[in-house]
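TICKET: design request
STATUS: open
ATTACHED STRUCTURE:
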């Protein structure tokens, strides 16, 4: 009897379970049909198996049934944020579907098929099975979010800019009051003014950080990449903080830890293309945090090295560390670790967000390895340049700088010996190497057959060389009159006893025994 009852109960449970599954599926479909986000389910080949009404509306189709059986590429038409079409197969969605990897991005516009209406979307792809399993594609209209974010960014930028001026004035007057040469105050007043001065400096840094954040967020700050030898640049920027470390009696070291006989070891050159201002902000924020959160007598170690096709920079300290729960949030805007030790240390909550923002703008990534009470190590990974790539990019950069220098009338950037050596070793044509124009206190007037500098051209009238024929209706200029030479020459060439007349030439040239 009990067995029968058990079997009867099991059958009833199975039937109820089946009915429950059907009911759940119906509820799930009802939910998908009523939400505003577009949802498309495709198989391993990219053929649409399911689409909700929102997907049909956003893609420009009249009904969700019209999408079934179509290739997703015919439905999901994407453009980049500037409105330029993305080549087929080169968007992030195609790569995610091809490799069956989850993906989330907000950098595309969804183009409707019929009306060509463009909608900024948050696009996601989630695998629902193995390599040949189904994939779920969702896209959400974020036009209103972007509009609100733009208005918020504009407000923060305007407010920060307007408030920086009075804050700078307050800081300046407090500095004058604390200066013994400009004011006389007692010790108690000095304590009050020092506290106010410190608070005004903190407020000024906050406004500066807010402006920096909004400039890159809304695209007003452009990245200007310069090819450099990264180890030397990082060392120079890190060494600039050595005085701050010395004040807290922190031990500072740079380079490979534990290297034997460093004085005679040869470190390989490591090259990267970086925005120097961005890199300086990255290192300044990381090192200021390390100094701030490391107790007196602690240690700070900085290193930069090649790691395959990447450049790896680390800033390591023996400070208070970061708890595991906070590690995933420390790079968020305005996030600050809240504990008894951090409350005593001021901060804006924007430093690490700026670091992440700048690193990603350079095409890299940043992360932290830490444990509370056991110090922290912040890693910055950036794309690395090979020797040949560095020589090519450095040559192009210096040529562009030379063009800008000539256009502005200043001396062009000289071509470094290091780049020249790399250029020769990588078979770069010698004639492509920009020639450095030496700068000296005494200007030199070039012969008529050579190119004059911009300053010389402005100061001396251009005279055609004797070999060139003058127009028939004008007399041919063969030489400068003696009086004109005497009037012009002292403005360009400082009088020295070593001035000679070059035979068969019409321009006086200075001969310098030391340089010629």
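STATUS: resolved
RESOLUTION: sequence designed for all positions
ATTACHED SEQUENCE:
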């Amino acid at each position: 009897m009990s067995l029968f009852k058990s079997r009867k109960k099991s059958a009833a449970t199975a039937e109820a379970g089946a009915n429950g599954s059907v009911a759940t599926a119906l509820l799930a479909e009802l939910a998908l049909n009523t939400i505003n986000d577009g949802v498309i389910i495709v198989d391993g080949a990219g053929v649409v198996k399911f689409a909700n009404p929102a997907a049909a509306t956003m893609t420009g189709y009249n009904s969700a049934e019209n999408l079934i059986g179509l290739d997703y590429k015919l439905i999901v038409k994407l453009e980049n944020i500037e409105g330029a079409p993305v080549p087929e197969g080169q968007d992030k969605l195609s790569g995610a579907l091809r490799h069956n990897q989850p993906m989330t991005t907000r950098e595309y516009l969804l183009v409707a098929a019929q009306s060509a209406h463009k909608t900024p979307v948050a696009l996601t792809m989630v695998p629902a099975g193995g390599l040949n399993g189904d994939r779920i594609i969702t896209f959400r209209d974020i036009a209103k979010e972007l509009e609100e974010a733009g208005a918020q960014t504009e407000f923060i930028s305007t407010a920060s800019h307007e408030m920086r001026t009075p804050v700078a004035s307050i800081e300046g007057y407090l500095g004058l009051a604390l200066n013994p040469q400009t004011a006389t105050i007692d010790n108690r007043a000095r304590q009050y003014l020092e506290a106010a001065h410190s608070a005004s400096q903190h407020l000024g840094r906050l406004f500066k950080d807010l402006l920096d954040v909004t400039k890159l967020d809304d695209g007003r700050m452009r990245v200007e990449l310069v090819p450099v030898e990264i180890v030397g640049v990082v060392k120079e920027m890190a060494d600039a903080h050595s005085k701050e470390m010395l004040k807290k009696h922190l031990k500072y070291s740079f380079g490979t830890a534990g290297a034997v006989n460093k004085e005679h070891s040869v470190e390989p050159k490591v090259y990267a293309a970086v925005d120097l201002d961005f890199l300086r902000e990255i290192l300044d924020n990381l090192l200021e945090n390390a100094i701030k959160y490391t107790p007196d007598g602690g240690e700070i170690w900085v290193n930069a090295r090649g790691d395959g096709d990447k450049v790896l920079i680390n800033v390591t300290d023996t400070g208070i560390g970061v708890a595991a729960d906070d590690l995933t949030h420390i790079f968020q805007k305005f996030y600050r670790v809240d504990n008894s030790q951090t409350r005593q240390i001021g901060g804006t909550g924007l430093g690490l967000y700026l670091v992440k923002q700048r690193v990603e703008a350079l095409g890299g990534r940043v992360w932290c390895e830490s444990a509370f009470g056991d110090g922290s190590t912040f890693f910055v990974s950036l794309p690395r340049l090979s020797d040949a790539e560095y020589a090519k990019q450095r040559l192009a950069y210096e040529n562009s700088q030379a063009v800008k220098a000539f256009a502005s009338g200043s001396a062009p950037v000289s071509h470094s010996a290091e780049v020249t050596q790399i250029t020769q070793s990588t078979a770069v044509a010698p004639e492509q190497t920009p020639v450095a124009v030496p700068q000296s206190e005494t200007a030199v007037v070039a012969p008529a057959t050579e190119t004059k500098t911009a300053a010389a051209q402005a100061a001396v009238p251009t005279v055609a060389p004797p070999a060139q024929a003058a127009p028939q209706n004008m007399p041919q200029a063969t030489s400068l009159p003696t009086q004109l030479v005497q009037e012009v020459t002292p403005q360009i060439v400082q009088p020295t006893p070593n001035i000679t007349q070059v035979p068969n030439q019409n321009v006086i040239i200075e001969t310098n025994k030391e340089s010629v």
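CLOSING REMARK: Residues 1-13, 258-265, 427-516 have pLDDT under 50 and may be disordered. The chain has 15 helices and 15 strands.
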